[in-house]
Amino acid sequence: MSTEAVAAIILISTFIILMILRLEISYAMGISTILTLLYLKVPLSIVFQGMVTGTGDFTLLAIPFFVFMGDLMTEGKITDRIMELAKELVGWMRGGLAMVNCVASFLFGGISGSAVADTASLGPIECALMEKGGYEKDWSWCLTMSTSIQGILVPPSHNMVIYAVAAGGVSIGALLLAGLLPGAVLCITMCFYSFIYAKRMNIPVSGHFSGKKLLKAIITAFFPMLTIVIVVGGVVGGIMTATEASCFAVVYALILTVIIYRTIPLKKIYHVAKKTCATLSSIMILMAVSYAFGWVIAYLTIPKMVATAMLSITTNKWVMLFMTNILLLFLGCFMSMGSILVIVTPIIVPVLISVGISPVHFGVLMIFNCGVGMLTPPVGGVLYLGSGLSGVKLEELSKRMLPFYAIMVLALFLITYIPQISLWLPGLLMK
Fold this sequence. Notes:
This protein is mostly helical and 431 residues long. The protein has one domain. It is 78% helix and 0% strand. The protein has helices spanning 3-20, 25-40, 45-54, 62-75, 79-90, 96-112, 115-132, 137-148, 158-167, 172-178, 180-200, 211-236, 242-260, 269-299, 302-313, 317-332, 337-354, 359-373, 381-390, 394-400, 402-417, 420-429. Helix 9 (158-167) packs across helix 18 (359-373).
């Protein structure tokens, strides 16, 4: 067996063993990298050079600002305005309260960019209303968790930035636009399921349509929703880079929450920033270590081996997308989104490009797959959060999630095999 083959076995097996032992992903990557370099007798300075390189990309500066903007909007109770708009849009239909949940998650996702923030902030409000309206508690929370992953698809999503960097310079503007319609597809499929469920359970219609109230709700939510236009419009229009747009979005969020709505006192900004730093610490450490880990993967020509293996099975891009979706859904059960993005992306993207698959299209698929992974045991962060907030046991919640998994996978494959859902907006606005 060659030296490179043994080194690859050391790298992968050590990483997997440490993951099974539930060691933090960053430490697992770092330790497996160091052990592999020691075997190869390569200077360990490579690790530290990789970590510096990993956090030195200017584009990555957009991540902390997008996260900070989302935290400001969440802390500033923007959810109330979003909920009111969603209620007036669909609350009067059959299954309206459940549809309000779906639409509110879509709208709020465009502000927070986080499935966790969506579940934590909207969940208690939405589920309380749904329970009063006749919906079962566990079903309500399953719907809330499932719709929350729209937050990582709808712009501005900091996860799209991570993917863009890991994929090697994919247009962030194109990715931001590409996630909008897939998020809408997920929203529509969940609304359709909500309608069927409400009809089957004979849940009465609540409220009625009022154009006057809808107009008032649109005016109330106008300034928060303008955030999406500012970020996406600025990047797509070439007015700002993604980093500059994220900075501008933070300033805009501060003006809204501190000056206009006055929902966050100045003295509380420090606590919001502290919360943001706690989130960023895990993201940036992972990004740093992943570059060293990725250097070793490239040194051992693992991407080439994976490409050869996949192309030996098929060169049909649709079959390859199917295989990749299955792989990502499986990995999502055991790895965090950040880990999958920084480890898998550099390996898989070159292979998919070689058979004619757009890296923008695949970026949306990868984010969607990772979103489903956030809802699956044993490491689904949103699933654990939903269980904690609802008081429903994880095992019971997981079982009740089964039809929601089926709907999300259906939406995923619609987006997979109708690439124009992802590519139409970027093609239209970025010619």
